[in-house]
Amino acid sequence: xxxxxxxxxxxxxxxxxxxxxxxxxxxxxxxxxxxxxxxxxxxxxxxxxxxxxxxxxxxxxxxxxxxxxxxxxxxxxxxxxxxxxxxxxxxxxxxxxxxxxxxxxxxxxxxxxxxxxxxxxxxxxxxxxxxxxxxxxxx
Length: 139
Fold this sequence. Notes:
alpha/beta; Nucleotidyltransferase, domain 5
């Protein structure tokens, strides 16, 4: 008995859907990169430290910027301590061990930083870290 062999045509690859997906991914990464850059206020000059671990930022970390004029900024908006407490308390109820990074300007008084830390703790946030920068090497 003789079986007839059919030659299958090679499958053609559709490039248009693949290009669409690549462009969507590119747009997604550019937008998220810009968003993460906007979280770190450029007006904040964090203190310098010789030692310190350079840790990768945890996903979902909240950055609290304390500017030189004692203004508190979170996610691009200016808040007072009561608004900060409300925002952090809502987040702490949803996410256990929520990381928070405080970027205090080097010229802001220590009392304001303590007020922000106290507000974080009252809201149920205990995973707090501080942003520093390495001193510049002047040679």
